[in-house]
Amino acid sequence: MNEEAIRERIRLGRSFITKFGDDADVDEDYASDQERKLPQPPLAKAPMREASIALPTCFENLQIDNDFLHVINTRRSHRVFTREQIPLLQLSYLLWCSQGVQSIRGKSYATLRTVPSGGARHPFECYLALQNVEGLADGLYHYLPMTHRLEFLGAPDELGQLISDSLCEQRWADKANAVFYYSCVFYRAEWRYGIWAHAPILMDSGHVTENLYLAATSIGLGGCAIAAVDPEICNRAFGLDGVEEAMFYAMPVGTIRPQDRSAEDSFYAFVREEGL
Ligand SMILES: Cc1cc2nc3c(=O)[nH]c(=O)nc-3n(C[C@H](O)[C@H](O)[C@H](O)COP(=O)(O)O)c2cc1C
pLDDT digit string (tens) for 253-273? Predict the structure, then answer.
């Protein structure tokens, strides 16, 4: 790519972030599908399997750090996991805090969830690679937010290898108890925001993983957001078409060493571990 083409890509990237609601020329001729009164897409993806697994919700039985400022101050990215088993209740809590549906607004117009979302479109689906979670077979899963259940999608032969391949060879991630993979169902946001949908989609994804970071911290687990996902490997593993729905973000979460729980230590633990 030559210098001018690179600069053009950068200009386009910047305008994609800043043009939301501020593109007068296009505004005059353009109507979103919602403005054209086209039918709204479903609020969440339909189950992919017949069977599903109920998740426990008795979160009062969890040891949660309720000191909000302490949680904020000790949140850190963690990349060294100790591979101990986690209770299903902890996994359920993480899913609830990052994507849980609290209520439905209107006649199925929107979900209200534990995270905010532009226009309450909540355009994400959450898939999981699970290992060492109490009561669950290791393997790939899909979260059903409308019923707070999980569906089992299958158990690949080399789950650890698949995890690291799917995250662009980030080998440390294959020791996580749960890798949260986020796909975007683009039309859920495009129906409302049309050509401007893609900036709020990215903003929304930050809310999801930040809640996941804080939830993990509050129960003594650690995780690390990952943009370096291999979309082809992820889409194939979870059966996504990569066009209408595509994987774009992930976060491994797992048990960590007690000494890594302080905010200062965790990054250096990773640096030491990797010999950097
Ligand atoms: C959008 C995003 C993408 C990231 N991608 C990666 C990644 O691919 N690999 C990784 O090791 N860390 C990744 N991180 C973690 C950052 O490196 C980390 O947040 C940063 O170093 C600051 O450290 P802290 O989270 O402990 O404050 C990502 C973080 C975010 C928010």
Answer: 999 999 888 767 666 666 777
In sign, the C-alpha dihedral spanning 139, 239, 245, 12 is positive
**Per-residue model confidence (pLDDT) at position 274:** 73
How much is the pTM?
0.94
Backbone angles phi, psi at 4, to 5 degrees: -65, -40
Interval between CA 71 and ligand 1 midpoint (Å): 18
Rounded distance from Cα 229 to ligand 1 centre (Å): 12
Q: How many whole angstroms from 211 Cα to the centroid of ligand 1?
A: 15
Q: What is the CATH number of domain 31-273?
A: 3.40.109.10
Angle between helices 88-99 and 198-218 (to 10 degrees): 150
249 by Cβ neighbours in 10 Å (0-12 / 13-18 / 19+) ranks as: buried
State residue 262's pLDDT score.
79
Question: How confident is the prediction for the chain on average, in pLDDT?
Answer: 94
Half-sphere exposure of 146 (CA within 13 A, CB side): 11
Distance set, CA 72 to CA 218, 223, 242 (Å)? 9, 14, 35
- Using CB distances shorter than 6 Å, the residues near ligand 1 are 76-77, 79, 170, 224-228, 267
The stretch 197-206 carries a mean pLDDT of 95
**Ligand 1 geometric centre to CA of 87 (Å):** 26
Name the residue of 71, 77, 165 whose CB sits within 8 Å of the most ligand 1 atoms, as the mutation to test its pocket: 77
Q: Model confidence over 22-38: pLDDT tens digits?
A: 665 666 678 899 999 99
Collect all residues with Cβ–Cβ distance below 8 Å to 222 and sequence separation of at least 6: 76, 77, 78, 80, 81, 216, 253, 254, 255, 256, 260, 261, 266
